[in-house]
Write a structure and sequence with these properties.
- The protein has 181 residues and is an all-alpha fold.
- Helices cover 66% and strands 2% of the residues.
- The termini are far apart.
């Protein structure tokens, strides 16, 4: 089954690069659907990059243009991403505070996905969404509060890693953009 395959990719390849708070998001049935699909999207995206395909074009002599991400895994990633995005829109319409941590986790995973793809604008959209959600005044109990703090730390790590990528792999214009607060 495709979901099980991508969950194995998540467990063996993706978790090491993410904040430790995501280590509890490994069992298929325990995650809210929005988190599940964000995880599957990130894992499929990772596989699309790990198994590049040679382009049919004659760009073999141009570094970086001879290969492209695996289209099958990339399509799966986009399907999961779109499904999670639709769930995010439904949540935004209802703004159910009991699901806030799940939405934050999914959006932070989207930040990681966009950053890994070099889509700094997409990262910024999701990062701004995370920032807005973290500023919401929602009542929290002990475990919810602890989880929110861990998610906030995971988001900060994603922001720092994104800026590192921008600095080392971006254009001079991207690299000179000020670090966000």
């Amino acid at each position: 089954h495709q979901n099980i395959f991508y969950m194995n990719v998540w467990d063996t390849n993706c978790l090491r690069a993410l904040h430790p708070t995501f280590r509890s998001f490994g069992i298929l049935d325990d995650n809210p659907p929005i988190v599940q699909e964000a995880i599957l999207s990130l894992a499929a995206c990772h596989m699309s990059r790990m198994l590049p395909q040679r382009r049919a074009l004659t760009a073999k002599d141009v570094p970086g243009l001879a290969y492209r991400p695996d289209l099958q895994h990339q399509a799966a990633s986009q399907e999961y991403y779109q499904s999670a995005s639709r769930k995010l829109q439904v949540w935004a319409a209802s703004c159910d505070p009991s699901q806030l941590n799940a939405v934050l986790a999914a959006m932070i995973l989207f930040c990681s996905l966009e950053s890994s793809m070099g889509n700094f604008e997409g990262f910024n959209v999701h990062s701004n969404g995370v920032k807005a959600l973290l500023q919401m005044d929602t009542p929290m109990s002990g475990p919810e509060h602890s989880a929110r703090l861990e998610l906030q730390n995971a988001w900060r790590q994603a922001v720092i890693l994104n800026w590192w990528r921008r600095f080392h792999f971006g254009t001079p214009l991207f690299a000179s953009t000020p670090f966000p607060n």
